[in-house]
């Protein structure tokens, strides 16, 4: 293998790779439809030109056949008049037009076949363009979906999903711990409140018990203690009078000083 062949192959491979990468399905589809429509316009022009040529040949063939028939009638007329030379000349003219008409008839048959072929090609191309337009919309939608999916996969691939999920799980655990602490604080607060009420309730029980004991002691005293007579005023009266006399004496002594 020659050096230039290898270089040529490398260049062509690189060019093909660049072209493949540069091809955008949506743009290529649109351009393909435009190219097909241009071909359709050219084919329609070719069909129209072939039909026009066919009609022109048909007219020429009809005209040549008409002239051949006319010279046939003239030859018969000249022969009826006894002019064989004129009749022979008329037959020569008829032969020329007849050959022309025959040649045109052969050409016309060929043109009819060409026109039919062009018409079938035109119908087939129109059908292909219609089908291509339908597929184009479908392929464009599929290409757009594939491109969007590829972009999404790239975004997902570039995301640090593991670390993000780890952080999410840590925050979830932290929220659970906060809820647990909050619940514990609420339970402790409720327990403290209940203990205070329990103390109050126990204190009232002690007071009630103390009052009951006092009532029991008072209710259980002896009859002698209940019926003891109070000290008579007559017995304490002399003691009080003597004390008063002593106080008076002291006052007098103080006044005399």
From TrEMBL:
PANTHER family: MEMBRANE-ASSOCIATED PROTEIN VIPP1, CHLOROPLASTIC, PHAGE SHOCK PROTEIN A. It comes from Trichocoleus desertorum GB2-A4. It holds the Pfam family PspA_IM30. Residues 214-242 are annotated as: Disordered. Residues 229-238 have a biased composition (Low complexity). It comes from the Bacteria. Signal peptide: none annotated. InterPro entries: PspA_VIPP1. Residues 101-149 form a coiled coil. The keyword Transcription does not apply. Belongs to the PspA/Vipp/IM30 family. Keywords: Coiled coil. This is PspA/IM30 family protein.
């Amino acid at each position: 293998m020659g050096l230039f062949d290898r270089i040529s192959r490398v260049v062509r491979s690189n060019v093909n790779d660049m072209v493949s990468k540069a091809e955008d399905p949506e743009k290529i589809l649109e351009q393909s439809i435009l190219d097909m429509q241009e071909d359709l316009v050219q084919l329609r022009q070719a069909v129209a030109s072939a039909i026009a040529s066919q009609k022109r040949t048909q007219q020429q063939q009809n005209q040549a056949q008409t002239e051949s028939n006319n010279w046939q009638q003239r030859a018969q007329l000249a022969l009826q008049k006894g002019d064989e030379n004129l009749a022979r000349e008329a037959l020569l003219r008829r032969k020329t037009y007849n050959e022309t008409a025959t040649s045109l008839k052969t050409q016309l048959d060929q043109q009819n076949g060409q026109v039919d072929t062009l018409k079938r090609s035109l119908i087939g191309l129109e059908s292909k363009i219609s089908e291509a337009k339908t597929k184009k919309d479908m392929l464009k939608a599929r290409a757009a979906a594939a491109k969007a999916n590829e972009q999404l996969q790239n975004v997902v691939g570039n995301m640090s999903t593991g670390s993000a999920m780890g952080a999410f799980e840590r925050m979830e655990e932290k929220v659970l711990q906060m809820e647990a602490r909050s619940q514990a604080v609420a339970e402790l607060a409720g327990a403290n409140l209940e203990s205070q009420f329990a103390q109050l309730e126990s204190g009232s029980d002690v007071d009630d018990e103390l009052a009951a004991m006092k009532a029991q002691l008072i209710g259980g005293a002896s009859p002698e203690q209940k019926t003891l007579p109070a000290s008579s005023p007559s017995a304490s009266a002399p003691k009080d009078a003597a004390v008063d006399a002593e106080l008076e004496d002291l006052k007098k002594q103080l006044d005399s000083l």
